[in-house]
């Protein structure tokens, strides 16, 4: 071979060797890419199975665990520790039968401070209930006594003497400002003007409830007239409701009949004999006295309701304190068997 032919042969051999190296490099890159893709797919599949264990358990029966029910050999349901609800109920019942007697014995050995406080609170509530019941009975008795006094006052004779009414004539020139509207009015008609003015402003507001009043043994407390527009029952005092009741027209021969007092609070056996139409000192005294008694009765009934609610809360807490759930979830550890009272006492 000549030098030219030898050079061409060597060049072809080098080209073939270079092509083989490139093919190996490309093949190596393809294998590495496929291995990487397979690892990604396996990782993604593992993450999906980890996020959805129920699907994994359903697809792979060998991965299901045995039911925790007593004596049960069946596999668990997907996403549960039991094969059925009955096995869970049986296991819970066995735990209660095993743990509850010990907790009850521990509860009996050590005294509960909250239980003692609850008993003292119940005693206090019972005393207040008895006092409120006594006060309510006194107000009911006072209610009937007031009605008897009003009846006696109406039976008095009317006195039309000029000397009895001349004391009011001197106050006609004096004026006073109304507390509701601020307009000046004479002293002679101040009480009447203020009462009418207050009634006019009181009618603009309403006090109602969705249910009528149902109190056993109570008479003449609330108005309880149904309003079809607001769909509520009026809860003003019946004797003071200006919206659903009006004062009757006073005849000329009706006596005032207000019981007179001495030193502001001492009652006497005398009554006001002036005509009710002309008496400016005792205007609407019957309505105001009745409203005062009714208001005290309402306050007593409201306090009784609050005391009953407090008693219900205390009894409910005492029942729940020694209930099944509380005994199973809470436990008092007594480290010293000789000490039964676990309360901390301050040394004197």
UniProtKB/TrEMBL annotation:
Keyword annotations: DNA-binding, Metal-binding, Nucleus, Transcription, Transcription regulation, Zinc, Zinc-finger
GO cellular component, one term: Set1C/COMPASS complex
Domain CpG binding protein C-terminal: 92-328
GO MF annotation list: DNA binding; zinc ion binding
An annotated GO BP: positive regulation of DNA-templated transcription
Localisation per UniProt entry: Nucleus
Name of the molecule in the record: CXXC-type zinc finger protein 1
Annotated source species: Pteropus vampyrus (Large flying fox)
């Amino acid at each position: 071979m000549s030098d030219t032919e030898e050079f061409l042969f060597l060049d072809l051999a080098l080209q073939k060797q270079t092509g083989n190296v490139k093919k190996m490099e490309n093949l190596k890159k393809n294998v590495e890419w496929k291995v990487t893709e397979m690892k990604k797919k396996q990782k993604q599949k593992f993450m999906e199975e980890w996020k959805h264990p129920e699907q994994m358990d359903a697809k792979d029966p060998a991965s299901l665990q045995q039911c925790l029910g007593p004596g049960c050999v069946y596999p668990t349901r997907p996403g549960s520790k039991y094969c059925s609800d009955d096995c869970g109920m049986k296991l819970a019942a066995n735990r209660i039968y095993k743990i509850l007697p010990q907790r009850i014995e521990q509860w009996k050995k050590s005294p509960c401070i909250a239980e003692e406080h609850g008993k003292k609170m119940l005693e206090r509530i019972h005393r207040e209930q008895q006092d409120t019941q006594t006060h309510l009975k006194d107000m009911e008795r006072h209610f009937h006594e007031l009605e008897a006094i009003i009846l006696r006052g109406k039976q008095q004779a009317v006195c039309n003497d000029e000397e009895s009414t001349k004391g009011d004539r001197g106050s006609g020139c004096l004026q006073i400002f109304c507390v509701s509207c601020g307009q000046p009015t004479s002293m002679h008609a101040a009480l009447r003007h203020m009462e009418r003015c207050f009634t006019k402003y009181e009618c603009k507001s309403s006090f109602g409830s969705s249910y009528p009043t149902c109190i056993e043994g109570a008479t003449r407390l609330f108005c309880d007239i149904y309003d079809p527009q607001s769909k509520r029952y009026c809860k003003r005092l019946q004797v003071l409701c200006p919206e659903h009741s009006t004062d009757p027209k006073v005849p000329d021969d009706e006596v005032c009949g207000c019981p007179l007092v001495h030193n502001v609070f001492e009652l006497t056996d005398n009554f006001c004999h002036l005509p009710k139409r002309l008496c400016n000192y005792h205007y609407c005294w019957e309505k105001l006295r009745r409203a005062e008694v009714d208001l005290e009765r309402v306050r007593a009934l409201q306090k009784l309701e609050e005391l009953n609610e407090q008693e219900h809360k205390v009894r409910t807490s005492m029942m729940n304190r020694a209930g099944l759930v509380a005994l199973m979830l809470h436990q008092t550890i007594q480290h010293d068997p000789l000490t039964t009272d676990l309360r901390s006492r301050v040394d004197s």
